[in-house]
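Lab notebook, bench 4. The sequencing result for the construct came back, and we need a structural model before the next group meeting so we can plan mutations. Quick request posted to the team channel:

Model the 3D structure of this chain.
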Amino acid sequence: MSELSTNQSLPRLNEAAPDFSANSTHGPIKLTDYKGKWLVLFSHPADFTPVCSTEFAEFARRQADFEKRNVQLLGVSIDSVYAHIAWIRSIEQLLEVKVQFPVIADLDMKVAQAYGMIHPGASATATVRCVFVIDPNQNVRAMVYYPMTTGRNIDEIVRVIDSLQLNAEKGLATPANWKPGDRCIVPPPPTQAAAEKRASEGHDTKDWYLSYSK
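Done. Here's the predicted structure in C-alpha cell form:
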C-alpha cells in the first residue's frame, strides 16, 4: 500500500467534516467560513482538462440554483492559484459562462488527504472526482466518488441537496428516483406498538414498514 493511501483518511457520513484552511482563487478560506450554509465541496483531477472544464461550466451555469438553496460551491484540485485563474478565464471565454465560486489551490494536498481524494489506483498526483455535501452544522451528509473519465450530473447533485434539505426540515426520506413534488417515505416505526398503529396514522401505508406521505 502506498504512502499516499495510508496517510489519508476518509470522512464519514453524519460526522464532522474535516477542518481546513487553504488558499483559493478568492483568497484565504477555511471551512468555518461556511458555517450556517450548505457546502458542496468538489474536486477535479486537473486544470485545463476537457471533462473537468465541462463540469465547471455546468456548476457555474447552475450557480443560481445552488444559491437559492443556501448552498456554497467550492472546487479543489492540486494546482496553483495561477493555474486556476488561467483555466477559469479560459472556461469563461470558451464556454461563455462566469465562474463565481472559489477554487482551492491544494498544492500541499492537505485538503485532498483530509477528504480521501487521492486514489493511487487512479492517479498518485491528481484528485479523483469527489463531491461532498456538508450541512450548515458542518457535518458530512453525502459523498460521491466518480472515476476520472465520468463527468458528474449536476441535476443529481441538486436532487441530493433537495432530498437532504427536505429530510432536515420534515424528517422524511425519499424513494428511488424521487424528485421535488413526489411522495416521500415516512420513516418506519421503531417499536412493535408503533408498527401496530401505523395503518391508522393517515399515510398511504403499504405495510407497517413502508408508508408514503400524502
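Residues 22 and 156 are 28 Å apart (CA to CA).
Will bring this to the meeting.
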